Amino acid sequence: MTQAEIKLCSLLLREHFGEIVEKIGTYLIRTGTQPLRMIGSDTGLSLDQVKKALCVLIQHNLVTYQLQKRGFVEYEAHCKRVLRILRYPRYIYTAKTLYSDTGELIVEELLLNGKMTMSAVVRKVADRLTETMEDGKTMDYTDVSNTFVRLADTHFVQRCPLVPEAPETPDVPPPPAPTLVINEKDMYTVPRLNLIGKGKRRRSCDDEENGEHKAKKQKQDAEGAEPPPDDGIYWQVNIDRFHQHFRDQGIVSAVANRMDQTSSEIVRTMLRMSEVTTSSSAPYTQPLSSNEIFRSLPAGYNIVKQVLDQYLTLLADDPLEFVGKSGDSGGGMYIVNILYGLHPLIYFPFSLRFGSRCARIFRLLLRKKHLEQKQVEDFAMIPAKEAKDMLYKMLSENFVSLQEIPKTPDHAPSRTFYLYTVNVQSSARMLLHRCYKSVANLIERRQYETKENKRLLEKSQRVEAILASMQATGAEDVQLQEIEEMITAPERQQLENLKRNVNKIDASENQVDETIFVLESFIESTVKKP
């Protein structure tokens, strides 16, 4: 684990959970597994603060615990899981694209709360959607439940492990920490709930004043009420499934750039057919027959079976091996090579850093393995001077290495071959390290911009709150204009500049995270599984 990763984790934890949780999380990331009292003594925090911070981290799946043989519990933070916080906006946007606003809010609530029951998610999302609707319209619980079921069916949300039911024995004390288990068959099984109702709007100020005396009674009713039917069945976002979707989209895009739109649509259909049956770490999809692919093509895509077979043959014969042929039954059995499909994606971040010509040399060295400088110039069709400059530039930054092969023992330069080669995994790790540093710098810059304009932001929020309250009471336009003039023209210009800068920083974070995902996926695909 590099210092850049630790720093980025620290910044993300502080930004989302506060200083105490950040201190505990960073300490566990740096030191590894630790017991409760060691965490408290080394961080200087009270045991109560440590326990609350660990509860937050465990709730959000950032820390796990394990019961040791000697009877004490150790806690371990997961750096990779903390770094996924950076990708939360992309998960939410993907859910919105696939399942509209309802899916977006379901995923957002699960990410914000870590784990929730289905009934709680449905009620919260229905209330939030009702708030955005016109007066008199409400969101039905059934509509939200149906979207939740669709998310579970496509494995975007999954059940959390549960404490197994065990007979109570008064003589045997309970273990220091429960062991959580989950049956894989039940991981995506949605409980049958009869949720009847509609979303509720927030009460106005007058309603709140009139309803204050009912608060105690409502609390007592809630305590005496029966638990919901899905009590104890908690759900969380399946991050691996989202990553599988991002990876599939990247492969489809690469096929479209390499071939044409029809080829990419065929590959998209194959990936969609096997998205649930293929694990996120599998090197290739399940074999699919040509007849199955033909039947599953989108309705508006009018291509005959003979043309489909020609496209599949063309994809299977392509040197990049996006699609492979695994048999001849059913008109031919085909698979999508996920492992090979990720390789072209590595060229994109490299071309962004060094330019398209350097990326051409890089791709050439990957294919040919070892080349002399003259061979690079000839194969890449780049002038000698430019090729030399590009090779030395990549060599100075350790993206390309130089291997000497002497003809004689004296290593005389005139009798030595100088071959350029690429260690692609080392290059990917180097780019990944720089991406982590870039994101950390962007977060620090955004925090600096916000801190420098803190007073102006607070003033703007106060003015907006006053305007909102006056509009609710039906104030005149002249009064509203007077309130708006509390912020001067230079201050308004400063606020616009701040908003524009923060938006640029946020967009840059998302773009760098896309590169991080490509690099991480490539590195994971090339690591040999035991």
UniProtKB/TrEMBL annotation:
Keyword Nucleus attached: yes
Localisation: Nucleus
GO cellular component assignments: RNA polymerase III complex
GO MF annotation list: single-stranded DNA binding
Signal peptide: none
Keywords: DNA-directed RNA polymerase, Nucleus, Transcription
Domain spans labelled DNA-directed RNA polymerase III subunit RPC3 winged-helix: 353-422
Domain of life: Eukaryota
Chain ranges of the RNA polymerase III subunit RPC82-related helix-turn-helix domain: 7-65
RNA polymerase III Rpc82 C -terminal domain: residues covered: 146-338
Annotated segments matching region Disordered: 198-232
Main location: nucleus
GO biological process assignments: DNA-templated transcription
Subunit structure: Component of the RNA polymerase III (Pol III) complex consisting of 17 subunits.
Family recorded in the similarity comment: Belongs to the eukaryotic RPC3/POLR3C RNA polymerase subunit family.
PANTHER family to which the protein is assigned, alphabetical: DNA-DIRECTED RNA POLYMERASE III SUBUNIT RPC3, RNA POLYMERASE III DNA DIRECTED -RELATED
Entry function: DNA-dependent RNA polymerase catalyzes the transcription of DNA into RNA using the four ribonucleoside triphosphates as substrates. Specific core component of RNA polymerase III which synthesizes small RNAs, such as 5S rRNA and tRNAs.
Protein name per UniProt: DNA-directed RNA polymerase III subunit RPC3
Originating organism: Anseranas semipalmata (Magpie goose)
